[in-house]
Amino acid sequence: MEKNQNIRVVFVTTNHFENAKMIARNILSEQLAACCSIIPNVTSFFWWDDQLNEENEHILLIKTNEEKLNELENRIQQLHEYDVPEIIVIDVSNVSTSYLDWLNGILKL
After folding, report:
1. Hey, is 52 helix, strand or coil?
2. Which range of residues forms the domain containing residue 68?
3. Which of 46, 74, 44 is nearest to 57 (CA)?
């Protein structure tokens, strides 16, 4: 494992599987991410318009780096169906050397 200061995992939820796939394909083809995984069919509870909501959603786990975050956020905002998409970034403290080399190669670092 290698200490890391650059890799990020971004969580994004969508209410349609097709929207999740479309976002993944676009950000990958634009090299804003190296990998996207979609976790289908999660149940989310959240407040919206002063009401407690329950929705079936899909989670995108997007693997990228610090340099791509602003452009990635802007692109997700453009492609997402929600008015306020959930975009949460997690810093990755350690990563396998081979995965880090692969991700940096995809993102042209």
Report:
1. strand
2. 2-106
3. 44
